[in-house]
Structures are given as C-alpha cells and as structure tokens.
Amino acid sequence: MPKNSYYHLPDLPFSYDSLWPFLTEQQVRIHHQHHHQAYVDNANKLLDELRQLRTKKKQADIKSLSRALLFNLSGHKLHTLFWENLKSKNQDTLPATLKKEIAKNFTSFENFKIEFSTLANSVFGSGWTALAYNRESDSLIIYQIEKHNDNILPNHKILLIIDVWEHAYYIDYIHNRGRYVDAFWEVVNWKKVDERLKKAKGMK
Fold this sequence. Notes:
It is a single chain. The protein starts with 24 loop residues before the first helix and ends with a helix. The chain has helices spanning 25-56, 62-84, 96-106, 109-121, 170-173, 177-184, 190-200, and strands at residues 127-134, 139-146, 156-163. The protein has a three-stranded antiparallel beta sheet with strand order 2-1-3, with helices on both faces. β1 (127-134) and β2 (139-146) form a beta hairpin. The chain folds into two domains: 25-84, Helix Hairpins (Orthogonal Bundle); 96-200, Iron/manganese superoxide dismutase, C-terminal domain (minor pseudopilin epsh fold). The protein is mainly α.
C-alpha cells in the first residue's frame, strides 16, 4: 500500500444498482471498487516511489515509473469523468447550448450518435471514445483514446466519454461491445455534458 493517499476513489453519483438495465449492480460495483480503485492505488504507490527516487537522486527507473504513473493516473481521471456523465434514468432532453453545438458540428443528434458509436465500437483492444471541445477552433471532436493515455489531445476538454475496456461490460455483455454501446445512450447525463461544455466555452 502507498504511504500517502494523494488520489482518492470518488463516490459514485448514483447507487450501484441504479444503472439497470444498462449495467447490473455487480458490473458497476466490480468496475468501481476493483478496477477504478486499482488505478488509484497504483497511482499513489508510483508517486511515492518517484518521490523517493528523486530524494535519493537515483534516475535509473524514472522513465518507467513516470510512464506507469501516467497510465494509472489517466485511468483514474478518465474513469471519474465516465462515472460523472452517467445517471440512473436518462429522460432529459438535450439542453439548448449542447443541442446547438451538436447540430453545428454534426448536423444532427442522430449523426452525432452514429459517429460516436462507430468510433466506440471500433476502438482496437482496450480504450475509450470521447466527445471533446476545443476552444481555439470552437469545435467539437470525437476521438478514440487507446488504453488510457495515447492520443489524448492537449487543450481539448472532454465533455462525454465511454469506457470500452472489456472490464467495463464483460459481466453483462461478455464480448458484445455493440450492445453495451447501444445501451449507453439510455443513461447519459446530458445536463453534466452541457455543464462541461459551458465551462469549456467560458460561459456562465
């Protein structure tokens, strides 16, 4: 166990059993308490090790430890974003700001869903798919994130993200990622996505 707890497993904004029929209580609990917790524990442990090496002025393992820290810390942060953009029942209409931005960039919400789902289903191996906003170009982009930390775009603020590592769905969907992605749309917290967009655009 790490000596210090710099990072902490966040509480979920919903109960473990409230995402059914998207995900079962068992799937959510194991994902949160086992997989997400592991990234938090590893990040704390690795940060301790790096600080100890720097104190001793030993540089031999700095590169491998730094890469491992980035992997686990990215895993922790991406999981936190994922939990936050889910809710127990998705009965909300798209907030006005988000609806306008999606229409401007993808012509329609249905086109956006198709593009996002296509990229989510085609992530090679383990990874994520994210909708992000770039203030410089005032545009939205959907992109894949391999594993946890490959191809993350600097200065792009993630608005919506789906975890397509097998550990996110293997209990409920086995190998059928497509069914999992389809069900994802039933539990998206569009209010949270809209809040992230407004913050990224500097709106109140």
